[in-house]
Known about the structure:
By secondary structure, the protein is an all-beta fold. The chain is 0% helix and 50% strand. It has strands spanning 2-7, 10-13, 18-26, 33-39, 46-52, 58-60, 68-73, 78-83, 92-99, 116-117, 121-126. Strand 5 and strand 6 form a beta hairpin.
Amino acid sequence: QVQLVESGGGLVQTGGSLRLSCTASGRTFSSYIMGWFRQAPGKEREFVAAINRSTSSTYYADSAKGRFTISRDNAKNTVILQMNSLKPDDTAVYYCAFGRYLSLTIAATRPNEYQYWGQGTQVTVSS
């Protein structure tokens, strides 16, 4: 079992920034993908970004490119999502996810490819 805990959400104005963290605990693996997804009310869960724990290679949704940066601190088992230039359309609950048998391909954008999920953190961007 892997436990994931997100933090760092909140309320921010358009153009502002937020830094989300996801800390993993429990069973450890040497190679896996960590992803960030978001879900707005009435919408499906949407891929945001993913990172390979071993190589630090990254993969972004088009909506995140140029504004969001995903990074990891392996010593702390933590993945960071730095979000800049936030827009009201970014308002959602943000979830981190753990994928044991994934690679950074289109598969990493599919929620059902991930085995473990955090509880989510609310991000609200006011106009």
